[in-house]
Write a structure and sequence with these properties.
Elements: E1 12-15, E2 19-26, E3 40-46, H1 48-58, E4 63-70, H2 73-85, E5 88-94, E6 101-107, E7 113-118, H3 132-136, E8 140-144, H4 148-160, E9 165-169, H5 176-180, E10 185-188, H6 192-197, H7 202-213, E11 218-221, E12 227-230, E13 235-238, H8 251-264, H9 269-283, H10 296-305, H11 315-334
Helix pairs in contact: 1-8, 7-11, 8-9, 9-10
Length: 336
């Protein structure tokens, strides 16, 4: 079932999950076998790709979202929110099923969150749910790593049309290696590279991913410390921006939306990463996955004047690791 807002060609198209989040604000995380009074409970829309596309639309891009929902109140909320935001949403309906939901515990003292989620297997996107023309008239494709077979199909179509593919990867779901073969820009959680490669050191695992899958750039988000990227020649470290965190829910989602925005604008990688870090940090200053999506002027102000986190690596560490990665690449090519 499809619901569309009349827009010209999409700047960004996203294929992936949506979720309806119940945000539970707590004075502190509860100890086992204890009781604690809630500070508040709010129901808000979320989901990795869905929230990223909302951010892109608010920043002025033509955004298209493809996702699956059940015929329940949570699904109705998702549809209404995408329509309100002006996102061209193509919904696949799973009759008699519940949409994805999550309960998110937020520590009032730190803003850090723990996510408890539930997903009916019948709302998983499948390749047969997709239409090629939804994908191939966009300038950038964003996918997540949950329904990897459908994501890989969308990415394959995009690559055939020379459309860059960004993947938001946080876990080692079955088939993610196939998806990576069609991904230009994997932007992962800090734990994903080790799960994929077995290598704990990011300065070794990121080059290993780029060599194995032929990506253009591999990046991993570091929480408050920003992002580390490897483009095959050099490491780029962009420290995070210091903010008073209220809720870290959705920070990664908004980072990925900002990354896509920078690609559409053809920004150099340094600028793209800094914009993404600033957008992600500002999203943490309000509750909910989309509560702190800042406008472009606010992001620009933070980029000019915001305080930065400490550096996760020294310049010397990055330069030495780049030399080692280049040597490993040369050895790998010689052995083929």
């Amino acid at each position: 079932m499809t619901e569309a807002i009349a827009l010209p060609r999409a700047d960004v198209v996203g294929v992936g999950i949506n979720a309806t989040d119940t945000i539970l604000r707590l004075p502190r995380f509860p100890a086992p076998d204890s009781k604690i009074e809630l500070l508040s409970a709010d129901v808000r829309p979320g989901g990795q790709v869905a929230s990223a596309l909302v951010a892109c639309r608010r920043w002025g891009l033509a955004a298209r979202y493809i996702g699956k929902i059940g015929d329940d109140a949570a699904g109705n909320l998702q549809r209404a929110e995408m329509q309100r935001e002006g996102v061209d949403a193509h919904w696949i309906l799973a009759p008699g099923c519940n949409s994805q939901t999550a309960y998110i515990l937020v520590d009032e003292q730190t803003g850090e969150r723990t996510v408890l989620w539930k997903r009916d297997p019948n709302i998983a996107l499948r390749p047969a749910d997709l239409n090629r023309h939804w994908i191939t008239d966009a300038r950038v494709l964003l996918v997540d790593g949950h329904d990897t077979e459908a994501a890989a199909q969308a990415a394959r179509w995009a690559r055939e049309e020379q459309i860059p593919v960004v993947a938001d990867l946080d876990n080692l779901y079955p088939g993610v290696q196939v998806l990576l073969q069609y991904t230009n820009f994997p932007v992962t959680s800090k734990d994903f590279p080790e799960r994929l490669t077995g290598e704990r050191n990011l300065l070794k695992s990121l080059p290993k991913i780029l060599r194995e899958f032929g990506c253009r750039t591999v990046a991993t988000t570091l929480g408050r410390l920003g992002v580390l990227a490897w483009d095959g020649v050099r490491f780029l470290l962009c420290p995070g921006f210091r903010v008073e965190a209220v809720d870290t829910t959705g920070a990664g989602d908004i980072f990925h939306g900002a990354f896509c925005y920078g690609l559409v604008r053809s920004w150099p990688l340094e600028e793209l990463l800094e914009f993404s870090c600033a957008a992600a940090a500002l999203n943490c200053t309000a509750p909910g996955a989309r509560g702190g999506i800042a406008d472009l002027d606010q992001i620009a102000k933070v980029r000019r004047n915001g305080q930065r986190s400490e550096a996760a690596y020294t310049p010397e560490e990055l330069q030495d690791a780049a030399r080692q990665a280049a040597a490993a690449t040369g050895a790998s090519q010689c052995s083929r």
